[in-house]
Design brief:
The protein is built from nine helices and two strands; from the N terminus they run ααααααββααα. The chain is mainly α and 231 residues long. It has a domain of 152 residues. Strand 1 and strand 2 form a beta hairpin.
Length: 231
């Protein structure tokens, strides 16, 4: 299918899903509710992560866990995103990193590929769609995952879940049990936050900022990243 035809199809789907102007009021209200929920969760969880409430997790263990998450989930998603964007060399770069770290790097706990002169080069599915000129759509806030545009949420929630479940189906079966569903969705949220940190930088705790400042900062960063991706 021609590139313009695919772009037109995806744009049509997003525009059809976008709320009309009269619905933007309830969407903003919903966003504020979810934002407040995320801020409350952030305020409760942060002391445990920082070590203020319980002994802090050793830095080497946190780094190893983050590396494994990025390798096992984000590297395949990055390879797929670059492929969707039509960037074969960078997609192959991610495939090589995944293969090296999954074998010689203990499933990615050690970033062996970086030691072998293959630095991390990550993108996400939202930016891949952006390179096809897919519009942002309305701004929304997802539980736990945080700020998104409709385009990015579609990529994170739908496409990423399909890829994760496709990879894990031989191990968890289909349809997944309730326990498997919770584990996979937790993994998906953690992977989404991990790759967001790689692309946008470490975010401040949600409860430290206002809804408007988080929204404006997110949309600004995505516009910059989208322009760099060719959108």
């Amino acid at each position: 299918m021609k590139r313009w035809a695919v772009s037109l199809l995806v744009c049509g789907l997003l525009l059809a899903a976008a709320p009309p102007a009269r619905a933007e009021g309830w969407l903003e209200k919903l966003n504020h509710v979810v934002f407040d929920f995320n801020a409350a969760v952030s305020a409760r969880v942060e002391p445990y992560l920082s070590g203020d409430t319980v002994p802090s997790v050793p830095d080497w263990l946190k780094e190893a866990a983050s590396n494994m998450l990025v390798n096992l989930v984000n590297e395949p998603l990055t390879a797929g995103a670059f492929a969707i964007a039509g960037d074969g060399p960078r997609s192959w770069h991610a495939v090589k990193r995944f293969a090296i770290n999954s074998t010689f790097g203990y499933l990615g706990a050690v970033d062996r590929a970086r030691e072998w002169n293959l630095p991390r080069d990550q993108t996400d599915l939202g930016l891949a769609l952006c390179s096809w000129k897919v519009p942002d759509g309305p701004y929304i806030v997802l539980p736990f995952a945080g700020p998104r545009t409709l385009r990015d949420a579609f990529a994170d929630v739908i496409v990423a879940n399909v890829m994760i479940y496709g990879a894990l189906t031989p191990f968890i079966g289909f349809p997944p049990s309730a326990q498997s569903f919770i584990v996979v969705e937790t993994l998906d949220v953690a992977a989404t936050l991990a790759i967001a940190r790689q692309i946008d930088g470490p975010p401040k705790a949600w409860h430290e900022d206002s809804y408007e400042s988080v929204r404006d900062a997110y949309l600004y960063r995505r516009r910059i990243s989208c322009a760099a991706a060719g959108g």
